[in-house]
Amino acid sequence: MRQLSLACFLLLCLIPSMLAQAPQGVTAQGMESGKEAVSAEKIWAELMAGNRRYVTGKTKPREFTQLRQKLASGQHPKVIVLTC
Fold first, then answer.
1. What are the mean pLDDT values of the chain's consecutive 10-residue runs (84 residues total)?
2. N or C terminus of the chain with fewer C-beta within 10 Å?
3. CA of 38: how far to CAs of 1, 44, 61, 69, 79, in Å?
4. Number of domain units in the chain
5. Is 82 domain-assigned?
6. Which domain holds residue 26?
């Protein structure tokens, strides 16, 4: 868990430098400009809330058929977590 937290923190710290190199019109969410960028603190809070739900067994119900159809048209992840 500690390694995962460290990996997430490091990736979140890299987002601003990656955005500085992103093509014009791209925000933190990978969408066109005009869309509000999500702060690293908000993304971290969402990750931690999801982890708490998972640990306590209170996961969100999902409609996977609709989710797959939506994701097939394109994905814009807020963060990518790399682990080993």
1. 66 59 48 66 92 91 88 87 85
2. C
3. 24, 10, 24, 24, 10
4. 1
5. no
6. 2-72
Residue 77 belongs to some domain of the structure? no
Q: Which structure tokens are listed for 83?
A: 């682990």
Which residues, including other chains, have CB under 8 Å from residue 53's CB and lie 6 or more apart?
A: 59, 60
Spell out the residues 6+ positions from residue 9 whose beta carbon is closer than 8 angstroms to its own: 44
Distance CA 71, CA 79 (A): 16
| DSSP secondary structure string for all residues of 13-80 | HHHHHHHHTSPTTB-TTSSBTTSPPPPHHHHHHHHHHHHHHHHHT-PPP--HHHHHHHHHT----S--
How many CB atoms are located within 10 Å of the residue 15 CB?
19
Q: Does residue 78 sit within a domain?
A: no
